[in-house]
């Protein structure tokens, strides 16, 4: 139940849970009947009137605040078509910014500048096998006096024709060396080295087992392009050039705002409660897209609390869940209006995930996801992925697969259909109610079904799921 205001009236927002229960009951078949309508739970138009001019007649704090609040702007407009909404999201991303990170923190980051080597790779000629560096056809004079001129710390000796020097894998070869004779292909007697058998002959005649300087790269070679994702071998390659840190695209700092009085974060939900689906899953999706959740706000069905959470400092992007609807228990749109946000995408012409929105505040963007779990995660993939991809450089491109079955279209909206893949053939999964998760949990891709539908055997666009790597 809501707490009474100072006036003793039970105010809208504080009485949201009973209304929620009634709503869940209607949608999901859970128990609950419409709760007694609280005094301030008026139809939206009347609520707006009260907010603007009347307030609570008893003069309690909530009423006074409502009287002085700026009039809410109306944030209702037509849903934006699939391609246009995604293009708007991409163009909303701020220009890329870079930061330097040590190699140890570079895994998965996106290179901001090309990797150019200043040194040859390898930067000296070295032995590829344990054995002897040799010059000439052999036999070879071996001994300490073979490793002579030019030798010394950091310098390889110089070999004369007919000379050999013992060498280990990775060691600099002496100048003049023409091959490395493997240990197992030579024998030494009385200070003279001979090659043994076919292997030895091949090693010497084939001038084998010397890795020349610069074989992999010359100074000034571009080894990786800007935009490359730093995998373990790419980090190792950077280390080989002598780099200790790399310039990478900055990640996006995200505040997650989870709305809903009925949402519980742990344990088995009680009657009318809903176990949170997003607290763990959404940060994981964002991580894959180049974002880090740096703050989590749990807010009830309350406009003021939602507005305050939208404005908390130190972040680049706010991601809200739930409350995107237009009922008396949904406050995201009104909170955005109260915070002075401009809606870039008020909703998308997609099913599910239609209420997904994108808004701009002076110092941040706001991605609003619907509360229904499948709708939210598909909204994140549909609108969040292109936004974050443009922002962080992480790849979110689509691919073309083949529809195994006919995929019916829907007038005026694009269908997002989770599917499994066998080769290039995609089959929709079961359990695709917008409040469900079982289908998405089994899916490999999300098919993008245009309003005209797709016939069996025809190509269809597919979105990668950020968590399938
Ligand atoms: N009259 C209309 N009603 C609805 C419409 C419509 O066009 N007209 N659209 C429907 C669609 S589509 C969607 S999607 C939802 C969007 O609703 P909200 O974004 O306002 O989400 P809520 O009402 O807050 O919650 C919906 C549903 O999701 C559950 N939820 C919320 N948060 C979580 C969470 N963290 N973890 C798991 N589940 C969560 C919540 O309990 C509700 O069951 O509106 C339709 N209605
Ligand atoms: O976004 Mo809603 O169905 O489309 O749940």
UniProtKB/TrEMBL annotation:
Organism annotation: Agromyces kandeliae
Keyword vocabulary terms for this entry: Magnesium, Metal-binding, Molybdenum, Molybdenum cofactor biosynthesis, Transferase
One Gene Ontology term from the biological process aspect of the record: Mo-molybdopterin cofactor biosynthetic process
Catalytic activity line of the entry: adenylyl-molybdopterin + molybdate = Mo-molybdopterin + AMP + H(+)
Pathway(s) served: Cofactor biosynthesis; molybdopterin biosynthesis
Function: Catalyzes the insertion of molybdate into adenylated molybdopterin with the concomitant release of AMP.
GO molecular function terms attached to this record: metal ion binding; molybdopterin molybdotransferase activity
Protein family (similarity comment): Belongs to the MoeA family.
Protein's recorded name: Molybdopterin molybdenumtransferase
A GO cellular component annotation in the UniProt record: cytosol
Annotated spans, Disordered: 1-71
Domain MoaB/Mog: 255-390
CDD domains: MoeA
